[in-house]
Each structure stands twice: as C-alpha cells, then as structure tokens.
Amino acid sequence: MKSKADDMALFVQVVRSDGLAAAGRVLGLSPASMTARINALEAHYKTRLLTRNTRSIKLTEAGERFYQGCVRVIEEVAAAEALLQDADPDLRGTLKIAASSDFGRQYVVPAVAEFATQHPQVVVNLSLGEGLVKLVESGTDIAIRYGNLNDSSLISRPLLNNRRMLVAAPNYLERYGTPDCYQALQRHRCLVLERAGQALNDWYFIDRDTQATIIETVPTCLVSSDGEVLRNWAIQGLGITIKSWLDVHKDIKAGRLVELLPTQTLGFSPTDSDKVALQAIYPSRQFQPRQVKAFLTFFSEYLQQIHD
Fold first, then answer.
1. Residue 251 lies in a domain
2. Residue 63's domain spans which residues?
3. 179 and 257 in a common domain
4. What is the pLDDT of residues 210-223, one digit of tens each?
C-alpha cells in the first residue's frame, strides 16, 4: 500500500515530466499503473487534479494548489532526511548524472569509478549523450556540459575554462590543404554533430575585419550524434570538425590533431563565445542530497588535479 508521501512524490513527478508516460519512465512504472495511481488519488480527494489528453496534461485550479502543497511537503521530508543523513558517516542513496559522450568517457567515467570505490553504498546512474537533458523531468541530479545556461530555474557551477576549436588531422591537411579563413571550409570535408535529430552544420565564426559574428553553413561529409565518434573520425583524417578544448587538447599535444583558425572560431551555437565553460548543472533545490553535494565537490577537485 502506497503512503500519502509516495502519492505526492508521484504527482509532483507527473507535473514536472508533463505527462504520465514520461513520469512513469522516471519512476519505473507502466502507463497503466500511472493512470491507476492518479485516478485513485483524484477519487480519494473527490476532485479533478489534472486535465489530460494524449499529448499533455494541465493542472486544474485544485491541482495547482495540491501541487504546491506537495512540493512543500516533499521539501520538508527532504530536510528531515538530510538531518538524519548528516549523522550518518557513510554516503548512501542514488545519484543520476548526465554528461556529453566524449567528455564523459574521458573524464566522468573514471571519476565515477573512483567515487563509487570510495562510497560503495551510493548507486550511480551515468547517462552519456549529446542531447540537452531535462533534469527535473528525467530525475537527473547533475548534468555536466559545455555552454551557457539558459534555464533560470537551474543552478550552474563552473568547473573548468574551455573554448570550441576547429581541428583536423595532419594527414587530412596534407591531402586537402589548410583553410586560411572560414569561407574556405566550403572546399573541405566537415564532420558534423547531430543533436535531437538535427545536424549542427551552421558553424559560428568572428569576421577578422568587422569582428561581427558570422554563420557559415558548412558542407557535411559525415554526421554523428556521438562527439567521441567525430573526434576519432578527425584523428583518422576524414575531415574537419568542431570540438571543445577539453576533449581534444591531449590529441593536439600528441600531434594527432591540429587547431585551425584559432582567432576566428566560436562554435556551433549562437551562445558560444571565445570562452565556453564546462559547468555542472543541477536543479535549484533547497535541500540537496548529501551524495549530490559530495560528488560535485569530488568532481571539481578531480578535474583540478588532472589539469594542474
């Protein structure tokens, strides 16, 4: 039998996920189970909390009041649990992390392994991919990603300085020549990142004469939704791509890749500039679980140590 607190947590997740099916995926429940739970909740309180169709949900006036009350109750429960956890010397609980594929495999995977060894009672769920994760809706505690934060409901913690770079392998440049300006990319083979089904082949540059931001739609040679794949293709001499400095600085130092147009390249987003920081993004929560706080501190120190 589910408690009122369980029902409140389920209802809040439904609202934050904007749907029963999406909330069910986060909670590990089938759509039928989610529907039954919400129906039972509405029957218990003898009022309609949600208006539903096949695509979305909307809070009723009563549902809005109930949602705000549930959020307050959940925060109070979290505060009480935090007091108990503070008295426990061992970290425990779950920790869900999302990171970009290339950076994630190079840095987050070994960091998580070390953290898990130190804190064996914390269950870490690591998801790698280039998509922009909806933290609250997916139940993600921390997203580690490049770029500027647009969602004011989230909190960002800068981890390391970074910038986008245009790179290619020496053997590619021997075969096709070295571009001396962004317009010259029209004669080259470009390796393009795909995000949410869209090829990001609009690359952003600074015009050397006017200092204006220029969008150059580059010819697409190969496309992948995995940043590590693009880096490996570039190392193999298959084309030119845009990567973050943190992803490729080892390859540049080893001579596997060469940076191109360093004073002109911005990136593949209109929010990119000459500095695109690496950040930890997390929901704005008054009572953050101890394991989340601990990993944020651990990972920040981990990065500083390996880049000192």
1. yes
2. 4-86
3. yes
4. 888 899 999 999 99
Question: Domain check: are 146 and 187 in the same one?
Answer: no
Q: What are the CA-CA distances from residue 145 to residues 33, 87, 92, 162, 277 (Å)?
A: 34, 33, 25, 11, 8
Same domain, 66 and 141: no
Given a contact cutoff of 8 angstroms between Cβ atoms, the answer to whether 142 and 111 are in contact is no
- Specify which residues 293 forms β-bridges with: none
Q: Examine residue 15 and state whether it is found in any structural domain, yes or no.
A: yes
| pLDDT digit string, tens, across residues 74-125 | 877 776 776 666 656 678 888 999 999 999 999 999 999 999 999 999 999 9
Q: What is the CATH number of the domain that holds 226?
A: 3.40.190.10
Closest by Cα among 136, 148, 165, 151 to 74: 136
Tell me what pLDDT residue 54 has. Answer: 64
Query: The tokens 């992948």 sit on which residue?
Result: 224
Dist CA 281 CA 143 (whole Å): 5
**Secondary structure (DSSP) of the chain:** ---HHHHHHHHHHHHHHTSHHHHHHHHT--HHHHHHHHHHHHHHHTS--EEE-SS-EEE-HHHHHHHHHHHHHHHHHHHHHHHHHHT-SS--EEEEEEE-HHHIIIIIHHHHHHHHHH-TTEEEEEEE-SS---HHHHT-SEEEEES----TTEEEEEEE---EEEEE-HHHHHHH---SSGGGGGGS-EEEEEETTEE--EEEEE-TTT--EEEEEPPEEEEES-HHHHHHHHHTTS-EEEEEHHHHHHHHHTTS-EEE-TTTEEESSTT--S---EEEEEE--SS--HHHHHHHHHHHHHHHHHH-
Question: Is 272 within the bounds of a domain?
Answer: no
**In whole angstroms, what is the distance from residue 172 CA to residue 178 CA?**
9
